[in-house]
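Weekend entry, working from home. Most of the wet-lab plans are on hold until the incubator is repaired, so I used the time to fold the two sequences that have been sitting in the queue since the last round of cloning. Logging both here for the record. First:
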Amino acid sequence: MELRNIAIIAHVDHGKTTLVDVLLRQSGTFRENQNVAERAMDSNDLERERGITILAKCTSVLWHDYRINIVDTPGHADFGGEVERILSMVDGVLLLVDAAEGPLPQTKFVLGKALKLGLRPIVVINKVDRPDARPHEVHDEVFDLFAALDASEAQLDFPTLFASGRQGWACTSLEGERTDLSPLFELVRDHVPAPTVILDAPFSMLATTLEANPYLGRLLTGRISGGVARANMAIKAIGHDGTVIEQGRISKILSFRGLERIPVDEAQAGDIVALAGMTKATVADTLCDPLVTEQIPAQPIDPPTLAMTFSVNDSPLAGREGDKVTGRMIRDRLFREIEGNVALRVRETVEGDAYEVAGRGELQLGILIETMRREGFEMSISRPRVLFKTEDGQRLEPIEEVQIDVDEEFSGVVVQKLSERKADLAEMRPTGAGKLRLLFLAPSRGLIGYQGEFLTDTRGTGVINRVFHSYAPYKGPIASRRTGVLISNSDGVAVAYALWNLEDRGPMLIEPGVPVYVGMIIGEHARGNDLDVNVIKGKQLTNIRAAGKDEAVRLTPPLIMTLEKAIAYITDEELVEVTPKSIRLRKRYLDPNARKRQSRIGDAG
């Protein structure tokens, strides 16, 4: 049986996971009457809730005499570390592009990685059944993108299919017969080369993904480069620097069959498998026969651009909602995360019980925090800060390419807000139907917290996409939040009467009945300074009856802070307290006297 290894790459929400669903169904992997969840490859709760792919997943389908291993990759730039490693496992890629939106920043990012590795993509213009589809213009835009990314002559001669993943058909021209995905299967068979392998060489494999299995231990997935892997065979792990990390045996070989992993006795070169049995080997290590001395070169990972501090929750409400609250538990969990997630960096800070976690962006770090709180962790999280680097004595900061699709009437406010955040407008062009496409080069630190403001400014109609572009000289200070906050000056429970009396000071962030403590942020001050207020003081009751009835307390609904909003909202002097049930905002120093002392030190400094 012949093998084909392909990855599906695209911008977020262009239909990768839905297309994989249909490929699995039409290849006969599922029974006709089998009940399978929509977007079956998105196995993680957060992936299902958000409708995005976070972790790369492998599957395989049988089509005639071919077994096609398919890797579904994430579409967000924040999870680019997954995409880069995965592409070294495959021999071809399907590049999906939305027939209405066309190529977007992440399309450019993943395509650039694929072309650099010498892969020859198959272009699938998906969602051509959309009422606003413009497949021919999008096809031209894709060709221009290939040319802009310095594609070779062979890569520029890419085959194109027009498809609707949801309806389950693909054809070579828009006038073609729309029956099923057979044209796609045939193109994969004819265009994607079989893996080039040496069967009689000693066994070797580059580990590209890692997961912890409660029964089998560490599972390392990769493509076998040479030789044959057999159960119970002696192997060793070589690090990317050539040092031997450990020696062991293959306790289990798992091969991908549809959505399941089936134990097999042996697997040959070219196949993508998961191996169990090693205790220290991790991503980018070479698993090989004891006779092998050279490691397989691994794809370099782009450096992280953003960092947050995860510290122990030391608020008066600590330990009430979570069961993992100590610094040691947080430390162990973070270091376990970086074993499999090579795009993250963790280092201990001088403060102790606090860890700096660096990653690609707010979304990646937000997903990690959300995952940990669901596991029962309580933590304090700092405002994200950008990681600078110095070259030739010059301070450089990360710059992102920001692409915005917006109605013409809102373009003025978007350009103004991004200019204030030190962004440069690189391109502005109409895309039809009264819409404009704006392209900015903006410093990463200027984009922290901009997403919510952008949605408000465009009344929820704008679409913003961003991807790392380069490092550039420091662009100077950027103004942060202009308003102050209302801070609780007492421990207790918030009372409706007190909140009602404070409403003219600014919008509230909490509801009545919520536990509060000294130093907790309960609202936004309409002015630029912070204000300590009492939110637990109820109405004084007397035995003298008033002639009029008591006034009914009608509260304005509070601003509900999601995790992402809270992280973007806080300043450097504030923290987000994250527990399994609550997200609270607080001052870094809870005691008002300590805050004053600290601000005096800051002013003097």
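Second, folded right after the first finished:
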Amino acid sequence: MSRLIRLLSLVAFIVIAPQIHAAEKPNIIVMVADDLGWNDVGFHGGDIDTPSLDRLAAEGMELNRFYTTPICSPTRAALMTGRNPMRLGVALGVILPWDNNGVHPDEHFMPESFQAAGYQTAMVGKWHLGHAQMTYHPNNRGFEHFYGHLHTEVGFYPPFGNLGGRDFQENGVSIDEQGYETYLLADEVSRYIRERDESKPFFVYMPFIAPHTPLDAPKELQDKYKDINTDLEPARSKQTDHTRRMSKMMMMPSARPMYAAVVDGMDQAIGQVLDTLDDEGIADNTIVLFFSDNGGAAYSVGGADNVPLRGGKGETFEGGIRVVSVMRYPDKLSGGEKMTDIMTAMDVFPTLAEAAGIEPQNTFKLDGRSMWPSISEGIRQPRNDFVFFGSEVPIYGSFNFTVFNDEWKLMQEVDQDQLNITVTNYLFRIKDDPYEHNNLAGKHPEVVAALSEEIRDWRALYPVNGTRSKLVPPPGWRAPRDWATYPQPIDELQPETNTGMAPTETILRILDRDHGERGRLVYDCEPEWWSLGFCLKND
């Protein structure tokens, strides 16, 4: 009888052990909005109904100083790699349909580490990190399951096309889905959770296309917000406010009502996923992280509101880079808390890895740091080093850059034409002036000079063929009929990355040195002063 009892105990252990192991590791859902404004959620006092996001804030922690890049693809690159997008060549512009750029295949993506640690991994939504080769495809970057779009701006209703080509797929195969896109994503995430392997934890990445333009929403939501206030306070940035003035002069209808409807729809989709976690009894052991990929599109056709922050999408004022963000993890975090330390999109990978107790498998050095001690224990983590962001959107040769830490922030507008470069500096003591009212550049020229050097050194890291603001395709370029067929298969590619015009590695390094601060030819190159300008980091 004792042998039988031991045998039954062993069988029970074999059956139960995987479920116990799964329970030790938290499930993770990373939700990313597309162009959500700071003042467009209820817990910031906004006039759009966002009960699901308000619930996450009440039951979790608001990450009150969460920063992203001012545009889409760079934020997603930073999120997936924990690395500064300036190094990656995906920083100054987004990956456009006619681009063949992506994130270097040697870069390690966050879901790859979670997959190596035994997680099920899925992505549901918008990718926007490369589509020309299968090396850039989500299914080759750590996601076992991919349901969504390779591009942005596919619309909220069928046929979900980009430049006339179909762009809705499941694991590389086009699908013909019907319905409102935001709700389709929620249905798919809910299905994935219900049908998961319960012996393993899961990692789900859910990047919405909402509330990105072109805006559209179900009629009942449009009716709900048809009378919403459209007289928004100024953004206090010349480009954004100029578009609003021009829109009014041309008597164009405000984008605000439709924008509000789209945000409401996204919040309902988030609520559906939260309800699924409740129904499955796994909400307490699931980390839900939400943030916007950049500040709200506050220009005329965008409809977002970032007040009291200054500026908006595409700009490196706070309204373009400081975004709505919350994290809920009932097993570890109390509700209704607020973290005020600086956290960036680059910090997400190391933070979630520490929270889940897994070891990142990256080989390149992370630029992000784990903020888990601050989130979980309230340990202050001052930002003595610098954070850098930039963009060149929408006008080619017109840049926004910033460098900041806990005390100072320098924001630069750099305009290039064929004969001149104009640099406008805005210096803020950001800890005392978070809404950027007082430009101190004239009073502290020494600080401006020092921070300008930091920006110049950082810009010199950019690969010379990185993304730029090229708003039209090469002359004569044509889009495919079906974007799922567009990526070049891996078995049709050569095994090594190409060095370009340089015939040898040695000549490539010489040419890289000669480029100096114009940018990098050698990937992941950061020359030291003692290296005479040569790249030594990869040796």
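Plan for Monday: verify the second prediction. Residues 2-360+371-377 form a domain with the Alkaline Phosphatase, subunit A fold (CATH 3.40.720.10).
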